[in-house]
Amino acid sequence: MRNNIYGKTGANINFVQLTDRETFKVRTYERGVEDETLSCGTGVTAVAIAMHKTNHTNANEVKLETPGGTLKVSFEASETGYKNIWLTGPALSVFKGTFTI
């Protein structure tokens, strides 16, 4: 029997390891791909904010090491949430395709 904890369509899952108070290693399993991806922008952004919100870091710029490279997420935290969220890092083309009709 399939466990439906993640719903019928599944979920993206981020595995996080603390390296130091400003650095985390992140590996992402992505639904649709149904495998680990080299990096996930929304995933590392969510990890950075979650680690701040849960007091695993007090930095407002967090370094995230993924199999695809190192990324940084910076943000401004307030009592009502987070704003001015920026994801920075290298961007490489890994696939080029052509649609024909």
TrEMBL record:
It comes from the Bacteria. InterPro entries: DAP_epimerase_DapF. Keywords: Isomerase. The keyword Metal-binding does not apply. The keyword Isomerase applies. Pfam families: DAP_epimerase (PF01678). Belongs to the diaminopimelate epimerase family. PANTHER family: DIAMINOPIMELATE EPIMERASE, DIAMINOPIMELATE EPIMERASE, CHLOROPLASTIC. This is Diaminopimelate epimerase.
